[in-house]
Amino acid sequence: MSELRTPENAPSSASAKSVAYPVTDRVQAAMALSLRGCEELLPQADWLQKLARSEATGVPLRIKLGLDPTAPDIHIGHTVVLNKMRQLQDLGHQVIFLIGDFTSMIGDPSGRNATRPPLTAEQIKLNAETYYRQASLVLDPARTEIRYNSEWSDPLGARGLIQLAAKYTVARMMERDDFTKRFAAQTPISVHEFLYPLMQGYDSVALKSDLELGGTDQKFNLLMGRHLQQEYGQEPQCILTMPLLEGLDGVEKMSKSKNNYIAVTEAPNTMFAKVLSISDALMWKWFNLLSFKSLDEIAALRAEVDGGRNPKDAKVMLAKEITARFHSAQAAEAAEADFNNRAKGGIPDEVPEVSLAGAPLGIAALLKSAGLVASNGEGTRMIEQGGVRVDGAVISDKGLKLEAGSYVLQVGKRKFARVTLSA
Fold first, then answer.
1. Number of domains in the chain
2. Do 405 and 367 fall into the same domain?
3. Is residue 9, in this structure, part of any structural domain at all?
4. What is the rounded distance in angstroms from the CA atom of residue 26 to the CA atom of residue 237?
5. Residue 98 — pLDDT band, cuts 50, 70, 90?
6. 94-99, strands of its sheet edge to edge
7. In a domain, 198, yes or no
8. Which residues face 405 on adjacent strands?
9. Where are the alpha helices (DSSP H) in 307-384?
10. Residue 284 pLDDT > 60, yes or no?
11. How would residue 353 be classed by pLDDT, with cut points 50, 70 and 90?
12. DSSP strand pairing (238-242 vs 40-42)
């Protein structure tokens, strides 16, 4: 990478702003796509002119998304911002997938009420490889610039870091919500945590980004990039934040800890069925944030549903689109067929196999041992509700004991196990 420009030798942004480029219909369409589903786009007037300049000059804009590989994999809630990247990528702009291998060693304090423990270099490397592989299911890897912020952060050195820290005040840093709350609560704040937003902002200087994307919790860090670019004489980036996606429950944000998520590595049948499990109301937000259908297509589909079409038809479309994105169109078709088969009481082709001993065994205990329920009590409740089948037949006898043999057990619509029971 070429040497970073300093405030003394960086080009002025004045020349870029002195020309007012025409806002064509294509530019207006690009602006509408940029705004689709976003929480904030700041400043909108600047972004409109950047789009107009790109249209007039043919020079793609540089659009940056930075992710710290703090976990080994991602769920579809993380792909909301990746979808926005792909939309802008399809307009012909240069997207930059920035892996924060350096900033991961600091630990992002965003939304934290305690210091985040830094990761080891080995953890970061393994997580980064998985992140990019999974992100490539949304982005076009052939048109994606992959960068690691250690490229410019490591060479910065102690002298460069001190010079960078001089460009922001402690008072401004303490305006950050999580720092303010921790300070008021007398919760420790380590000095190195102040470096995180500075280093993320410096990434924007290094990459000369025109737009940086992030979640709503990243707004402070994204604005830091604008500030530092101005300090270094660059035209400041615009920032675009995307909302957090509600999970399967339709209430809490999608999270593994809340078990309301769909992993991008989820099996096709499970992924399809989970999408179909969301509420009709939540479906339209998911369409807006996760689907690549145009807003006109979604509006037309919603009008059909409002006019009497079964909302399940729309949900099936969404489930197939998401499943196909992370697997294939064939896998999505097979998942739909599997779901329909289960809905009719059929047994799917792929069923986990379990071998157990202790026949004759009570049905509730058997369901628990097969991993289909968490407790005997839950097994009994499912029987009372008519949600348990053995070899396709609904079980109503809570006292049923099964002799040695092979059985297909089903709890609800999606849980199956092929059990071989011995004495």
1. 3
2. yes
3. no
4. 21
5. very high
6. 40-42, 238-242, 211-215, 62-67, 94-99, 144-148
7. yes
8. 421
9. 311-326, 329-343, 363-369, 376-384
10. yes
11. confident
12. antiparallel
Same domain, 103 and 232: yes
Does residue 95 share a domain with residue 214? yes
**Directed axis angle between helix 79-90 and helix 25-35, to 10°?**
170
pLDDT digits 0-9 by tens, 46-63: 999 999 999 999 999 999
234 near 258, Cβ under 8 Å? no
* Residue 386 covered by a domain: yes
Which is higher by pLDDT, 110 or 305?
305
126 and 216 in a single domain? The answer is: yes
Q: Is 344 within any annotated ligand binding site?
A: no
Q: How many residues does the chain have?
A: 423
Interatomic CA distance for residues 66 and 207, integer angstroms = 11
Predicted pLDDT at 1:
36
Domain that holds residue 162: 14-242
Letter for the amino acid at 26?
R
CB-based burial, 356-394: b 16+ in 10 Å, e otherwise = beeeebbbbbbbbbbebbeebeebbebbeeebbbbeeee
177 and 71 fall within a common domain: yes
Q: For the chain, give the mean pLDDT.
A: 85
Phi then psi dihedrals of residue 9, to 5 deg: -110, 5
Looking at the structure, tell me whether residues 210 and 288 fall in a common domain.
no
Which residues, 6 or more positions from 41, have their beta carbon under 8 angstroms from its beta carbon?
A: 34, 35, 47, 238, 239, 240
- Listed residues 242, 257, 292: the one ending a domain: 242
Q: Is residue 381 part of a domain?
A: yes
Look up the CATH number of the domain holding residue 130: 3.40.50.620
Q: What is the mean pLDDT of residues 395-418?
A: 84
Residue 267 corresponds to which amino acid? A
Rounded Cα–Cα distance for residues 182 and 169 (Å): 18
- Return d(Cα 81, Cα 79) in angstroms, integer: 5
**Are residues 288 and 402 part of one domain?**
no
